[in-house]
Amino acid sequence: MIRQKYIRYAVKGFVIFRDTDSMVHFDVDRAIGSKFDRVLSAGFVELGNGIVRCYGRSESMNKDSRLDDSIALANQLGITITGESL
């Protein structure tokens, strides 16, 4: 399973990027320009083998993951998940 970072926007949906020390949520948010879009949540995501799991928080943006992030991201990616896959 691959661990990555994500930011969830009200309009754009999810933006997923590599989990590295040099890429923090705040910098990615500034680079893609959320000026006209509201950040709903941010954190980490594990993807693989039909599993989508969002968790944690972004310290640089002071945003937590939300309970519905995993299901919403799976829907955006077109992945059908069951309760065991969360």
Element pattern in H and E: EEHEEEEH
Tally the helices: 2
The class by helix and strand makeup works out as alpha+beta
Mean pLDDT across all amino acids: 89
The major sheet is characterized as:
4 strands, antiparallel
Fraction of residues in helices?
Answer: 10-25%
Strand content: 35-45%
Brief summary:
This protein has two helices and six strands, in the order ββαββββα. With 86 residues, it is of the alpha+beta class.
Q: Topology of this protein?
A:
Elements: E1 2-9, E2 13-18, H1 25-32, E3 39-48, E4 51-55, E5 57-58, E6 63-64, H2 69-77
Characterization of the model:
The protein is α+β, with helices and mostly antiparallel strands. The protein is built from 2 helices and 6 strands. Strands 2-1-3-4 form a 4-stranded antiparallel beta sheet, sandwiched between helices. Strands 5-6 form a two-stranded antiparallel ribbon. A hairpin with a 2-residue loop joins strand 3 and strand 4. It is globular. The chain starts with a strand and ends in a 9-residue tail after the last helix. The mean pLDDT is 89.
